[in-house]
Fold this sequence. Notes:
There is one protein chain. The protein is mostly helical. The chain folds into three domains: 1-42, no CATH class; 53-141, Homing Intron 3 (I-Ppo) Encoded Endonuclease, Chain A (Alpha-Beta Complex), CATH 3.90.75; 149-196. It contains nine helices and four strands, in the order H-H-E-E-H-E-E-H-H-H-H-H-H. The protein has helices at 25-34, 53-60, 93-102, 132-141, 146-149, 152-163, 168-175, 179-187, 192-196, and strands spanning 83-86, 89-92, 111-114, 127-130. A two-stranded antiparallel sheet has the order 1-2. Strands 3-4 form a two-stranded antiparallel sheet. The longest helix is centred in the last third of the chain and has 12 residues, at 152-163. The protein is elongated and about 65 Å long.
Amino acid sequence: MIRSMKVCSIQGCEVQAKSKSPLCSSHNRRQAKYGDPTAGPPIRRHPPRGLSPIEAFQRLAPTGPPDECWEWPATRTSSGYGQIYAEGKFHGAHRLALEAFTGEPVPRSADALHSCDNPPCVNPAHLRVGTNLTNIRDKTSRNRCAESRISRDTLRAVRESHSRGQGVRDIAKSLNVSARIVERIIRGETWSRRSSR
Length: 197
């Protein structure tokens, strides 16, 4: 005898309900914590196994007004970009948003660029296909790139401070940049053209 699966009673939730409750485990926890199964931050869901990346994206994709950001409700990278696991690997949610909207895959050599500068946004109106160089130019022109905020004088000061024994973290904190950027400046891995002018 095959029993039918009981689904969570919250509208839009298609997750299996617990055996003695009309709610799934996530909504049960919210009921216990907040007194309301729909209260609290958005539930981060994972799509069912066996779906293509586009199908998995469409199961979780948020929507909203066309001029606002639609923030990815599921897993995100440490940089804040939405991601989804399908077919044995992670896929960028913003790339899948473009693919679902245009019907064409984003070439592996291309990036999905945000016009809104909001990494978790998957609103196709805020996305476009572009090159890595275009992405870097956008970041620089909008002052989102550390290199665009660091002058030649600051580069010299970083190297001088380090040569006098000041710690990388202290230098980074004083400039409001990451320690990794300071380390790259010290090693000469980046900003070499700017410091030689």
